[in-house]
Amino acid sequence: MRWLLGGLILTFFSSFGQTYFIALFSSEIRATFSLSHGEFGGIYMAGTLVSAATLVWLGRVVDIYSVSKVAFWVCIALSLACAAMSVVSSVWMLVLVVFGLRLFGQGMMSHIAMVAMGRWYSAERGRAVSITSMGYQIGSGIFPFVMVSLIGLIGWRQSWALAAGLMIFVALPSIYLLMQKERIPRGQITEAEDSGIQKQWTHAEVLADPLFWIMLTGVVAPSFIGTSVFFHQVHIGEIKGWSRELIASSLAVAAVATIVFSLISGWLIDRYSARQMLPLFLLPLGIANVMLGWLDGAAVIIIFMLLHGVSQGISNTLFGALWPEVYGTRHLGAVRSLIMAAMVIGSALGPGVTGWLIDTGVGFEIQLVAMGVYCLVTCVMMAVVARALAGR
Question: Is the model's pTM score more than 0.85?
Answer without folding.
Answer: no
